[in-house]
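One record is given unchanged without comment:
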Amino acid sequence: MRDHPRKPRHAGADPRSDVWVGKATNKAQWVLAAAGAACLALGVQLAVTSNWTSGIAPLLMSVIGCVAAGLFMLFGTLAFVHVAVRVDGDALEVRCGHMGLPRRRILLTHVVGAEFVPRVTPRQWGGWGYRWRPGQGTAVVVRRGEGLVLRLGDGRTFTITVDDAEAGVRFIRDRLHLSTNGVRAGA
């Protein structure tokens, strides 16, 4: 059998592993996606079965408003129902939603530290999704709970809510040869 270097045999926190994979999901966002689908359906129903006597302009505005709000809610929430994080020997890659978009790849050579955070909440970041806050950095928040924080060489931080974040931090620190206090071993 041929061994493929891009597809490791082991994944997870196993010390022999070349790749760590973490995921997180938020089932509550399916409710928001259903509300978006309902708005979209209402817009279609208004367009098909409406007999408004007040004119075409109010009908057109209602249909466009319902369809736009429905699409925005539906696709905006489905993009952040789950996140997948993959750390291999040279980079960390974050993919959101079913299509893997938005996506971010951070080279491990740009990472100077990794920390485990036991509680990250959407409230800290201003909601769910891909977030940026001045003085706080960038984050991908799909649910509340544990997360990992990367300190980058340019002084910025990148936070990700992901299951088993502590194992991810250990994996990244091992790849970067960092001790538990974030200092490079042998420095």
In short: Residues 56-78 form the longest helix (23 residues). The CA atoms of residues 70 and 120 lie 29 Å apart. Helices lie at 29-49, 56-78, 122-125, 165-176. The chain has a mean pLDDT of 83.
